[in-house]
Amino acid sequence: MTLSDFADLGEILAGFGVLVSLIVLIYELKSNARESHIKEATEVSLFRAEALKLMATDDDLSRIVWCCLSDKQKMKSCEQARFGFYILSWMVGVEVVYKKQLETRFDGKIWEELEDSISWWFRFPGMRKWLRNHEGGLSRDFIIYLESIADRVEINSVQADIVSSSYFATQE
Predict the structure, then answer these.
(1) pLDDT of residue 169
(2) Looking at the chain, which runs of residues are DSSP E strands?
């Protein structure tokens, strides 16, 4: 075997090494993308769970939220403000995901599930009132997006009316 034959063999082995490296790299990228999607889904689920847990563990907040969602009960200014801050904190978290989704750095399926959750809130007249009256804390683009969701969702305040009425019924 001549030196030229060894050089040819070296080139073949090097080409094979590059091919193997590319296959491993593709596998790693797919694996990292899968892990990233799982992480995103977990973060969104935890974010949503935290908001619901807060309502579940704080009876006063739960009463305020349901009564404000119903928009039938006269609420104190401090209670309306607490509702506003609760919703704003939730929406700020959603806006972060919204911006990632716009940059296509977020899993579309997870975004659809979160969008369904946003739509649920806008079934209630008090949430629409909050959207019309709130000031600051959210970008104008995100507000326009929220308004488009509110326009697509039919108001169905029965659940909020029943829950808010039950809070007032137990106080008597």
Answers:
(1) 65
(2) none
